[in-house]
Amino acid sequence: MSEMVPVDADAVLWSAPADERAGRPLLVLLHGYGSDERDLFGLAPFLPAEFVVAAVRAPLSPPFPTPGWSWYPIEGLDAPGGDAVTTAARSLIDWLDAATPAEGTVGLLGFSQGAAVALQALRLQPDRFAFVVNLAGYVDSGALPTDEHLAEVRPPVFWGRGARDEVIPAARVEHTIQWLPDHVELSGRVYAGLTHSVSQEELVDVRAFLEKQLAAQRP
């Protein structure tokens, strides 16, 4: 079993001070492999202002010379019995338990490895998260005992990916294509010409998705 390393609460970047967060929906940003919390936090000005945004730093250091941080090792990821993605998702959930009230609305937005962790957290606690934005990520192939309940709840998930993304293996993309529609309310796009990155066009679609989720939460 993979050893769980806690998220560094002191490294989290917040869009609002603690005294301005109560009663507002939370959007947690999870960066990709070899990056850090500052990467996706740069998207905050493009996201709906109703959200409190928290950009979390992954807890692991990738092998030299890769810079930044990682949610789980990419070496041996497909080995039988691997649980690295689940361990990373549990670390995220532990941080969330300590950082936010349990009754608040929480959505997750992840890029690449961060998106895989976001989807895994949703699978672990289908009733905890209001939605997930999956940018250039994938669903881990291992089964979880909570998957059946996820398919009953069917929370909204936006999946955006580039037609020229050659970073995520084709087998993981294909598994995600097959798996997500059976378990969530799926929307999203494949962006022509886009590589393993995020485009302005995609950000427009993400904002529209987030605004739709805000509207669904209003009385």
Tally of distinct domains: 1
Please list the strands of the largest sheet in the order they lie side by side.
1-3-2-4-5-6-7
The rounded Rg comes to 16 Å
State the distance separating the first and last CA atoms: 43 Å
Low-confidence stretches: none
Indicate the structural class. Answer: alpha/beta
Biggest sheet descriptor: 7 strands, mixed
General form = globular
**Considering the protein shown, what is the CATH homologous superfamily?**
Alpha/Beta hydrolase fold, catalytic domain
| Percent strand | 15-25%
pLDDT averaged over residues: 94
The proportion of residues forming helix, as a percent range, comes to 25-40%
Notes on the structure:
The protein is of the alpha/beta class and 219 residues long. It has one domain (9-217): Rossmann fold. It has 6 helices and 7 strands, in the order ββαβαβαβαβαβα. The chain has a 7-stranded mixed beta sheet with strand order 1-3-2-4-5-6-7, with helices on both faces. Strand 4 (106-111), helix 3 and strand 5 form a beta-alpha-beta unit. Helix 2 (84-99) packs across helix 3 (113-124). The chain is globular and about 45 Å long. It starts with 12 loop residues before the first strand and ends with a helix. The mean pLDDT is 94.
Question: Which descriptors would you attach to this protein?
Answer:
Rossmann fold, globular, 219 residues, 31% helix, alpha/beta, 6 helices, Esterase, 7-stranded mixed sheet, hydrolase activity, AB_hydrolase_fold, hydrolase, LYPA1-2/EST-like
